[in-house]
Amino acid sequence: MIVKNSKDNSKHSGLADCDCPDCAVDSKSPKKLRALKSIILIIVGLAVIGVGAWYSYDYYRNHYGTDQQKADYQLKKIVAKVGKLIVLPTDETPVLATISDADTLAKQQSFFLGAKDGDKLLIYQKALKAIVWNPQSGKLVNVGPVIYDQNADKAVSTGNTNPTVETKETTTTKTKK
Questions:
Q1: Where are the domains of the chain?
Q2: For the segment 45-90, what is each residue's pLDDT rounded down to a tens digit?
């Protein structure tokens, strides 16, 4: 027995192949819902693939690039991290050095007191600024001006003797004219 609504005067069979307007609206909504789910699934899938691709690219640059690419990448990351702690000069690229004998440096110059082996030294030659940064703690160890030693004709950090800082990256020094 077929029950009819008093409001509905159409002949409704209730079957899946019914051509009445009510059934046509109802039959399209599952198709729309399926299409919407497919679109959302595709967008989520593309986002996952994009994040994975970025991670792979970042990992490659950090581990398998040329030595110069690795040094540039490391410098960029360190400058970004230190830049969150202090205002840095933007008109020049700093020289990056890794401190390998902090005890000897601390004995030679008080600027290096508190520094540890593995700390990073950023030297801004134009701005005459030197920064010692500890990557483990993420804190600045010391910041000071670069003073040129007239006798040695090399740049040094806040002292009268030249620091012995071992660098893994290529460093250059400018002489004061």
A1: 87-157
A2: 999 999 999 999 888 777 777 788 888 888 999 999 999 999 999 9
Report strand pairing: 139-149 vs 129-134.
Answer: antiparallel
Beta bridge partners of 122: 96, 131
Q: Name the region of 118 (left: φ>0; alpha: ψ -120 to 50; beta: rest).
A: left
Task: Determine the Cα angle at 84 with ends 125 and 98, to 5°.
Answer: 50
What mean pLDDT comes out for the span 24-28?
A: 54
> In which residue are the tokens 């390998």 written?
100
pLDDT at residue 65, rounded to an integer = 73
